[in-house]
């Protein structure tokens, strides 16, 4: 926004900014600030009512904010919105489902079975989404590998207790149930648990 421009006219929202997985501006490397929308401004487009700061004030905020790089998941989201193809397993899911699957898997993998993605800080959320992306971007094989690693961690601590399915997977069990639609990660987790239980009963 230049000094001669009316901020109410020229400040515009980008579609990708509506998704919580997008946490920074990839062009400027600055974190986004989330605010509640003013009443009556639910449509896409102008959002100056929610950004009362002057251009000079916004520039000062940008200069003083910590630089942050876009996570691989954010890069995928931005590319998918633009129509760019990504990993097939994720592309075959609704976008919000693909995002959530990556986030909740990464939260438990990176921070333990009791971690909930929505309770993480922004920096922890970046770690979790990047971790989850490492597996979901590789499709079913990658997700199954994540489950095996999580199971092995629990087995090393206590092989008997690990067979209680909540021990290795914790909040992931609840999170995948909340993901709407025909959720591939939920089906894969159910398959892993069934196969693991069968192996344990055969010992």
Quick overview:
The protein has eleven helices and two strands. With 203 residues, it is mainly alpha-helical. The model is unreliable at 1-10 and 41-46 (pLDDT under 50).
Brief descriptors of the model:
203 residues, mainly alpha, two-stranded antiparallel sheet, 11 helices, 2 strands, 56% helix, disordered N terminus
Query: Which strand-content bin applies to the residues?
Result: under 5%
Distance between the first and last residues' Cα: 67 Å
Q: Report the helical percentage.
A: 55-70%
| Class from secondary-structure proportions | mainly alpha
Strand order of the largest sheet: 1-2
Largest beta-sheet characterization: 2 strands, antiparallel
